[in-house]
Design goal:
- It is a single chain.
- Helix content is about 35%, strand content about 15%.
- It is α/β, with parallel strands linked by helices.
- Helix 1 links the parallel strand 1 and strand 2.
- The mean pLDDT is about 90.
Length: about 250
């Protein structure tokens, strides 16, 4: 399986929010949306791209939300980690139905359903053409799946961190509440932190800045967008370097 010359990246990490799997539902997983996401991932897998994924658990349980309702934050975060495992297993099943070999690796030990996270093994899976889904966050409370995505992307030597969201990039304000907000085409890590933009949490952005890990934030809901990012088309917002916002 040869990579097409026009594909810009050889190894990627794709960050999916749990909410992306809900579709029009208010909770859980919409099987139609799950199938569509799996189909899009298959398209880029067929190009020979090595693909790792990190998936959130907000469609099932969100730690911060649980903590705000009086639950101990550590307990709430561990519950959130288990939710990401459920999503990872669902996505694994959807991908394998399409004939794509997939492995789930978890940061907490659940050996009956998934492999433990081992960096060298994850890289070997990628080299063999398997998709790897990283679940259970970092295995520690107080760290988000955004931070997990930045950390795993750096560890496996990904060339880009692709954050799939429900909007088409980074804005100075919430575009759903402020229709006049104009999307940044490009912005630096430092400016994201300075302006307190809700791209990813500060720990994730700081990690990416330290290792110069390019981030592209884009809309998952538009069919074909994952492939467009792979081919370097100008969609979404690029977060990198120390340049000025555009």
């Amino acid at each position: 399986m040869n990579q097409q010359p026009s594909a810009r990246y050889r190894r990627i990490l794709l960050k999916l929010s749990g909410e992306a799997l809900m579709g029009g539902e208010s909770y859980g997983i919409d099987s139609a949306v799950l199938g569509e996401v799996a189909e899009e991932i298959r398209e880029i897998h067929q190009l020979g791209i090595e693909i790792a994924l990190v998936i959130g658990g907000g469609n099932i349980f969100r730690g911060i939300s649980g903590a705000s309702r009086g639950m101990d934050r550590s307990t709430a975060d561990y519950m959130g980690m288990l939710a990401t495992v459920m999503n990872a297993l669902a996505l694994q099943q959807a991908l394998e139905k399409l004939g794509i070999p997939t492995r789930v690796q978890t940061a907490i030990d659940i050996k009956e359903v998934a492999e433990p996270y081992i960096r060298r093994r994850a890289i070997r899976h990628l080299e063999k053409g398997r998709i790897v889904i990283f679940a259970a966050g970092t295995g520690l409370p107080f760290f988000t799946t955004d931070t997990t995505a930045a950390l795993r992307a750096i560890e496996i030597g990904a060339e880009i961190l692709m954050k799939a969201t429900k909007v088409d990039g980074v804005y100075p304000t919430d575009p759903e509440r402020d229709p006049s907000a104009i999307k940044y085409d490009r912005i630096s890590y430092t400016e994201v932190l300075h302006r307190n933009l809700k791209v990813m949490d500060a720990t994730a952005i700081s990690l990416a800045r330290e290792e110069n890990m390019r981030i592209v934030v884009f809309n998952l809901r538009k069919k074909g967008n994952i492939k467009k990012v792979i081919f370097g088309e100008g969609i979404g917002t690029v977060v990198e370097g120390s340049g000025h916002a555009e």
